[in-house]
Design a protein that fits this description.
The complex is a heterotrimer.
Chain A lengths: L7 E3 L4 H10 L4 E4 L5 H6 L7 E4 L9 E4 L1 E5 L4 H6 L7 H4 L2 H8 L4 H6 L2 H5 L12 H6 L28 H7 L3 E6 L2 E6 L19 E7 L5 E8 L10 E9 L5 E9 L6 E2 L2 H7 L6 H11 L13 H20 L4 H7 L6
Parallel strand pairs in A: 1-3, 2-3
Antiparallel strand pairs in A: 4-5, 5-8, 6-7, 6-8, 9-10, 10-11, 11-12
Chain B lengths: L1 E7 L2 E7 L5 H8 L18 E4 L2 E4 L12 E3 L12 H8 L9 H14 L5 H7 L11 H15 L1
Parallel strand pairs in B: 1-5
Antiparallel strand pairs in B: 1-2, 3-4, 3-5
Chain C lengths: L12 H5 L15 E7 L5 E7 L1 H5 L3 E6 L23 E2 L5 E7 L2 H8 L3 E6 L6 H6 L14 E9 L2 H7 L2 E9 L11 E6 L5 E5 L4 H12 L6 E5 L14 H13 L3 E4 L2 H7 L6 E9 L5 E11 L7 H10 L1 H4 L5 E8 L14 H18 L4 H8 L5 E2 L5 E2 L4 H11 L2 H4 L7 E11 L14 E7 L5 E5 L8 H13 L6 E5 L16 H28 L6 E4 L2 E4 L2 E7 H12 L3 E6 L19 E12 L6 E11 L6 H20 L5 E3 L8 E3 L17 E7 L21 H13 L2 E2 L1 E2 L3 H12 L5 E2 L13 E3 L13 H4 L6 H8 L1
Parallel strand pairs in C: 1-12, 7-34, 8-32, 10-11, 14-15, 20-21, 27-30, 31-33
Antiparallel strand pairs in C: 1-5, 2-4, 2-6, 3-5, 7-15, 8-13, 9-10, 9-12, 13-14, 16-17, 18-26, 19-20, 19-25, 22-23, 23-24, 26-27, 28-29
Helix pairs in contact in C: 6-7, 9-11, 11-19, 15-16, 16-17, 18-19
The chains are: A alpha+beta, B alpha+beta, C alpha+beta.
Amino acid sequence: MMRLPNFRFVAPTSVHQAAELLAASSGDTMLVAGGTDLLPNMKRRQQAPGTLVGVRHIAELRAISSGDGVTIGAGLTLTDVIRLRQGFGGQAREAYGALWQAAAQVATPQLRNMGTLGGNLCLDTRCNYYDQNYEWRKAIDFCMKKDGETCWVAPSSPKCVAVSSTDTAPALLALGASVTLVSANGTRQIALSDMYRNDGIHYLTRQRSEILTSVHVPRLDGWRSVYWKLRRRGAFDFPVLSVAAAAKIAKDGTVEAARIVLGAVASRPVEAPAEAIAALVGRPLTDDLISEVAERAAQPSRPLDNTDFTLVWRKRMTKFFVSYALKELRGDDMRARRLKVSRQELL
Amino acid sequence: MVQITLTVNGEPVDVAVAPYKTLLEVLREDLNLCGTKHGCELGECGACAVLLDGQPVLSCLVLGVDCGGRAVTTVEGLASDGRLHPLQETFADLGAAQCGYCTPGFLVTAKALLDEHPRPTRDHIRDALSGNLCRCTGYQQIYEAVEAAIAKGSR
Amino acid sequence: MKIVGTPRRRVDGRAKVTGQTKFADDVVLPRMLHCKLLRASVPHARLVRIDASRATAHPGVHLVLTGNDFPIPYGILPVSQDEHALARDKVRFVGDPVAAVIARDEQTAFDALDLIDVEYEPLTTFADPEDSLANPTPRIHEYGDTGNVHKLVSLQFGDVEQALADADRVFEDIFFYQGNTHLPIEQHAAVAAKDPDGKLVLWSSTQTPHYVHRALAKTLEMPAAHIRVIATPNGGGFGGKSDPFNHEMVVAKAALLLDRPVKICLTREEVFYCHRGRHPVLMQFTTGMKKDGTIAGMHVKTLLDGGAYGSYGVASTFYTGALQTVTYHVPAYHFQGCRVFTNKPPCGPKRGHGTPQSRFGQEIQLDKIAEALTQDPAELRLRIVERPETLTANYLRVGTIGLSECIRRVTRAADWANTFRKLPHGRGVGLACSSYLSGAGLAIYWNDMPHSGVQLKLDRSGGVTAFCGATEIGQGSDDVLVACVAEVLGIDPLDIRPITGDTDLTPVDLGSYSSRVTLMMGNAAIQAAERARDLLADAVSRKLGVPRERLVFADRRVFDTEDPGKGVTFSDAVCLAEAAFGTIGTTGSYTPPKSAARFKGGGVGPSPTYSYSAAIVEVDVDPDSGWIHVPRVWIAHDIGRSINPVLVRGQVEGSVYMALGEALMEEQIFRRLPPRLSDALVHKFPSMLEYKSPTTLDMPEVFTELIENPDPRGPFGAKEVGQGPLLPVMPAIANAVYDAVGVRIDEVPITPEKILKALDAKAAGKAPRYGPSHFPDIPWPEPVRVAPPWEGGDGKAQDVGRQKEEGRSTAAKAVIRS
């Protein structure tokens, strides 16, 4: 049986206490919420923190408030997040559709009952050379991300190219979300986009002493958003490509504003180039426009050979997934397509 | 070792757990409840599913020390008053358990589904069980067993 | 019949749904220690030095074992005793066990593994079969046919060259079948202990306790009578627990040395290293067809990537060429097979053992042939189905054949006439068929003894205990055992307690492999039960004054068929018999009929009878992306007779499931790092996350039809069902993809990437296919030539004397031909 290494476990009951614990620690302290990302990594000895700070008992992290937009506690489970789609006067289902569609496609029902929104946003980057047992990694003399020097995906690369594999981050980026980070030194709110870096090792700008406490999604009157995920199976699998898209579409069908974000094609979620968005705005979502924008939006997709499926095919799939997302935003009935691609209708 | 009190299958249990032990290890090794199985210990198969406060979770990724005050239901706790749960009856009758190794995880997950939605559709059942791998059955007889249990429950 | 054929809760059903089935890892004993294995971190190297002193000194460590503790090799086949419990002089793949730590708990043992210092001297790594063919040195093993070629076989039945020359059309195709693994949800586990008498007991999740028993006696140099192997119910096997394994030898030895129970439970990663799964096979099919749509002759070549050890590999090699003739009539047949060693986990028997690969090739080629001859693939097959009760070209004795009925039933169910070549672009249907053994006709080691034995003990209470060495791996062997006995004795299956898979308590059954248990154990059980019934009938007949032949056993009673009120309860019948004859215990056994094949290599393929299946798969392929979706599968299986239809259907649907996995997504594949930087050759993803086993959401609807046409060779007419229904699914999917988008995917898994590449090729005006195009030159030996039965052959090789000669002339060949 795969077992955890030894560690000390503390369970503070407030964000303040947790922040103090992190501030006082020597650097080998980590937060654990759902445990679905960190504990497998610890069993594989990818991480071996001396102290784990469990945040499950912190009620503040599960708070939800709405006003000018919605603030969602980072400690809510993904199942909780899916249930929110019924809330906020129906606005969530349309405007925040990408978020619940993303949450609903994370891993499995059991893992969604455990894993939290904050955990999914901070998900460790993934790579077929890294997400392996200790013995396996020893057989390749380890890799840059843990205990080794070389990036085996791209041996000449000076930086790690592990893949951002969070489902909720692209969705929330498409919604223009921001996050609150709390440390013993204070609180800061940053755009979610600013929390990510395109570096497989240092993929978060969050400091080790900071706790991601909540996510703020702005009010999005008249917007719709969707999330499309590519993976081999209908459950369990992390995305090997995802597309989150949000748009405000006028009654006459003209796009007034839009955001498109690609997931799992780099070490951070990648926003579609400005020209792709510019091409959308002010025009109706015709098939031709969708094809054109899909090509442009797919430009930054740079998958590498470190996930399931071949990189060439994943890259080629990007434009299709962007077009599926845009068609769904247009109001097309995409259930049959969902059923084939995602193996579920996501109703 | 950390002393915790939790409810297991309806009964309060005091147990001293090593911090590194997951709920799976606590159940199997400290409480001798070997009905909960394991196939990967990494959250990749669903064999170790148990109910934690009524919700299906993977016991291989739950820290034992974090279970104080919580209620755990394992396959050993499904029967009551000397009678099998309808799901147990129909799983046994209709071929839903072949080798039986994934069965405890399926049973508790299906129980949670029926507790929340008394009359789920086939698609709903499929979705709820999508985190449990079975290599033997091809799932069809499992769906049928869940549906038969629904029929039994409503009679 | 009361029991047989009636859907029923399996005898072990309650245990399985209450969590009470005791799997190997559930065995917990006082004072038990825990074992972990240190596995090689390099793919191919000489072991220069192992220093375990730091590990031995680690607190909590009780023992460290190395190759020095295991001088004697073992292996499942007598011809390939090439494994050591722990490596002695070299390691052959990443994951090959090198040392073992036995400690107070698993954690301590794990930590101590890192304290064992191993010095390796790297050797050239062989990553794929063509490397092994091209480079005879360094040899991975010091045995085998040549260099790194483990086995070369060539069998020729009739003049195939002439048959191909005379054929109206000759089709030649090359296919590749990627390797994959069993992935039972239960990881292998074993517990060993000394019993109070000082004898060894091993509980293990093994499909073959009898063979493990023999291997332990050999490697531990102990009398077999002092070893007891208990096969715990397996949490899935599928062939992956059919070899004796390193970890079993290690914990046995450790328990003997320490006189304490020792447990090991492998991690999922280690299960991928145990492997013994589907061989990757490259194959070439050359088939001559006559104008009337029948086969003139067939030449099959296969190249198997065996991995680092022999395992069942010699048998696997023969199996890639054995069953082509059992499905369709092939008047002249030539098979050449080659298995090479590579530095990867050993391949072996997975559900279908060696036959799914060539079945894939044969069934796709038939689809291509039908297309070329503008015939319906179902009608073409109906024309060439092998004849029942016949001897094939390669001397396999075929019993009943329900294949034609299978084809008719699936084509009707799937509305074939209105769907094949008639669905809109992107949607398609494909058909394929198969056959499989109902038990291997020969044991793993040569002997004349029965393959399965059953003992019955009848109690005065009316309870019966049935003892058999058969192993419950989920397939329901315990249920078949009690069903057969209950049917004969007219009692309830739950009146019978099965005691199985225990070498101390139960008579030998060879194990749960080759789909042999229902037929062999079932016949043995019937014989034992009939002998008991006869004793009871004698006693009851005397008591009631009713002639024996008029007595009926049913409903827990023995009564006069002409006067049903006149009778005794079953328990009274036992008491009467016990009073008359003493304690009632009977035995039954089963030995398969002698094979008609009397040539070298004829030992693989014979079976008492064969099952047949036909499947139609519907696919939906997105022409833009290649994305493939399978909404429905129809399958018909010639079961002979269902003993418990619930379990039969479960085997069919489970086979379809496993087939879909290997057809669409499962791969046991490896990653070689850039050779200029590293020698590493590692399993690409030894995890359940990345080895893609289909989830509920990926599984199509399956419509199962059972063809019940009892075969007199089977118990109550039953044939196998555990493996056969897997076989037609993969080629049916490939054929359906062609129907949907007009491209041939001549290899598995059939992935979106491959479909898209084939579509690209089609769009570019190239051959609309994806698959291998080259079969390497292999130094085939002179064939063993056997005249088919219809040419007056007697099953013996024609030129036995010449077979042994080296380098004989082509003139000799000409003589034989003429």
